[in-house]
Methylglyoxal synthase (Rhizobium rosettiformans), 126 residues
Amino acid sequence: MSRTRCIALIAHDQKKDDMADFARRHQAKLMGWRIVATGTTGGRIKDAVPELDVTRLKSGPLGGDQQIGALISTGEVDMLVFFVDPLTPMPHDVDVKALMRLATVYDIPMALNLATADILMQTLTA
């Protein structure tokens, strides 16, 4: 029996509205995926699209980025969508870089902006 594929969704504070809109627009495709998200982002996604099954982890700065990194390293996350805000300093920047490094090391698709995330969603089947 094959497992349900998993997508991790993360957004910096200034990008959370974009992530909620992204989830709303791609609801049909996301319904076929297990979703893990950092705390506040996961809450915003659930508010926007209550039908999605979202597992909320800790907030990014409180360890959520590292939790998702651990899931990537154990093969439980198949894709990462991380809406990064390049114009705002992040106190947990090292965690963000580590997460991107893991996605690269484990060769999973990773989108860091809306344009790339939309293209990845076009390639998906549920």
In short: The first helix runs from residue 16 to 25.
